[in-house]
Amino acid sequence: MKRFDLRELMGKAGFKTVLASLISILIGMAVGAVVIIISGLTNDNLGGKTVLEGIQLVTGGLFSTGRNATTGALTFGFNPQLMGNMLFRAMPLIMTGLSVALANKTGLFNIGAPGQYLMGTAATLYIALSLPTGTGESLQRVSGEFATHMEALGMTGATYPAWLVWVLAFIGGMLAGALWGAIPGLLKAVLNINEVLACIMTNWIAANVVTWIFDASKLQNAVENTKRAYIYKTSFNGVQTSKLGLDKLLPNSQVSGGIVIAILMAIVVYIILNKTTFGYELKACGSNRFAARYAGIRDKRSIVISMAMAGALAGAGAALYYLAGNTELYWETSQSLPAVGFNGIPVALLAANNPIGVIFSGLFMSMLEICGQKLKDLTAFNEYITDVIIAVIVYLSAFAMLIRILLSKRKSGGKEALK
Amino acid sequence: MDILAILQSDSMAFLIRQTLLFAVPLMIVALAGVFSERSGVINLALEGIMIFGAFVGVLFVNSIEKLGWFQSAYETLKLVPSGKAEMDFSLLLQTQGFALLAMAVTAVVCCIFSMLLAFAAIHLRADQTIAGTALNMLAPALVLFLVRMIANQNTLNIAGEASSWFMLKESYFGFGIKLTRTTKTASMGFLGQAFINQVYPMTYVCILLFIVMAVFMYKTRFGLRLRACGENPQAADSLGINVFKMRYAGVGISGALAGIGGFLYATTTMNCSSNGDVAGFGFLALAVMIFGNWKPGNIAMASLLFGLLKCISASYSTLDFNADRVYEFAQLGISKHLYNLMPYIITLVVLAFTSKSSRAPKAEGIPYDKSTR
Q: Does the N-terminal or the C-terminal CB of chain A have fewer CB atoms within 10 Å?
C-alpha cells in the first residue's frame, strides 16, 4: 500500500489552487476583522465586547442561535433555518458562478452576468405570471383579486398545469439569458469588441429594458398594499419549485428544491467541460484562440456558444430564484444591477473556474451573506462588511497566479517558478 | 412658433443648466479614464472611485459642518433671496472656497485609493479587469459600511442643503430678491438663468480642470511620456522613461479626477449625500471615453450628448419651450426608458462600427515586463 505523503499532496496543482483560495479567504476575513476592530474602537458607543461579538459573528454567524435571554451573551448551535437559507441563497450564486466560470474557461471575462440574470428574471416572471394555472394557493387567499387581474390580461378560460408553466418559465429564463450573453459573444467573435465593455453596456441596457418591460406590464403587485414597487410572486399563480422535503429537514427556512437543480447543473457543466470534445474545444479557445483555430477548431463559434451558455446559466439562476415562489422582484432596476450577478465573479474565481468547486464557493459566499445578516441583527455593525470581505477576495484573486507562484517557490526553492 | 423665443425660454435655460449638470461629471470621469488607459492601465474602477470620492467629499463637508466654521456664512446666504440679509461677496468666497477645499481633499484621498489598482496592475502584474472589478465591489461595500456606522442609515447627508451651501443664486447679484410679499426685483435674463442662477461653480471648476488636464496631456513633456507608455512602453523605457512611475502617475491622476467627478455628481445631483451608489455613472463615463475615442475634445462632445439624453429622460415631462403648457418632449410619445437606454445603445453601435479603426492605446491592459524589451 502506498504511504500517504504530505509532500506529494502539496506538490499537486489542485492542492495549490485550493490553498491559494483558502489564503485569499483568510486574508479577506482578516481585512474584515480589521475594519470591524477599527470602526468599533473608534466609535464611542461601541467597545471591545461588541468588536469581539462582531468578529465571532462574521466567522461563525451561520451557527448563531441568537442571544441568551438572561445573560445577553451570543449563543451558538445548529440552526436549521440559517442552514436552509444558506442553501437557498447559494442557488443563484452557484448559477452565476458557473456562468462566469464557463466563460472564463473560454478566455472570456463574463462581467455581463447581472444583465443576463435580469433578462432571465424578466422572462421567467413574465411567463410564470401570464399563463394562468388556476390553482394558486395565494389565488384563493387574495380572494379572487388576482383572478380579476388575470381577467384584465384577457386570460380567463384556458388554464395550464402548474408544472408545465414552471418548465416553460425556467426554459424562458434560460433562453433570455442566453440571448443576452450571445450579444457580447457575437460582438467579440465577429467584430473583436472587448467583451468586458460590451457586457457592461448590455448590463445597463438590460437594467433599463427590464424596468421598461415591467413599467408597461400589469404584473406589478396591486393586490397587497405597499407592494406596488414589486412584481407578483410566482406563487400567486400557483407556480413554485417543489420543496422536495427539504423544508421538513430544515424547518422555517426558504430552502427549495432549486438547490438540487443548481448542483446537478454544476455537474453537467463539469461533464461538458471535461468529458466532451465540445468542452475541449471551448478550453482550447480559452488557452490560445489562434492555436485552436490552427488546430481546426471554429473559434468564433466557440466564443458565441460559450457566452450564450454562460448567459443561459445566469438566466437559469434567476429562474430558480424567482420560481421558488417566496421571492419578489423590485422592478425599478434601472438604477442598480443585481449584486448576485457580480458575486458570480468571486464565486468563480475562488473555485478557480472549476464547476464542482463553484458549488462549494457558492455555498461559502452565501454563508458569508448569512453571517452579515446575523451581524446586522445582533450587533451595531452591519451586513456590508461581508461585501468588503468579498471585494478583498476578488482583489486577491486578481493576482492569484502570483500567490500560486509564491507557494511553489516556497516548496521547490523557486525552481518551478522559473520553468 | 418663434425660434428665438424658444431659444430664450426658461425651459431652454433649464435644459442647458441640467445638461451641464449631467455632462460635466461624465466629462471629468471620462478624462480620468483617459489618463489611466493612455498610460497603459485599464481603469474599470471608475465607478468605484466615483462612489468613494462622493463619500469622501460628503464626509469632509459633513465633518467641517459640525465644527461650525462656515455656519455664519451659510446662515446669512440663506437669507439673501428673501431680502432679509445684505449680500456680501466675502461670504460667497468662504462657501465656494470650502467647496474647493472639499474637492482637493477628495482628489488626494481618491488618488491614494486608486493606488490599490495601480499596485496590483503595475507591480503585481495582476489581471487589471479583475482588479478594477474588485475596486468596484470594494468601494460601495466599504462606503455603505462606514455610512451606516456613522449615520445609522444608508445615506450620509450634510446638515443643511447643498443648494444653499454651494449653489449660486441670482439674488446674490441683486436679481430676483423678494421686496414685499408679491414683488421681486427683475430676473436675471436668459444667460443668467442658464449659466449663473442655480448653478454650482464647482461645475465650472471642473470644466476648467478638464481643459487644463487635456492641455497637460497633449502639450507637456510629461503628457507625451505618459502617452508613450500606453502605446509602446518598451520604446519609452529604452529612451530612459520609467514606465512604472509613469503608470503610477497615470492611475493616480485618474483616481484624483474620478474622485472629484464623484463628489461633483453627489453634490449637484444628489444634494451632497452619499449612499454608495452613483447609478452607473462611472460605467457611463467609460462609454463616453470609448465613444470619444480616448481624445479629450471628442469626449467633451460625447459627454454633452449623453448629458443631454440623461437630462431629457430625467425631465422630459416638464420641458415646455414656448410656455403654452404643451410639453414638447412628452408629446413625442417616446418612453423615458428609451432616453435612458440611448447612451448604452449608441456606445455599442459606435463600438461595432469603429472596431476596425478603434484607436485604443495599444499597450493598455498589458502589464509591463522589463524583460520583454
A: N
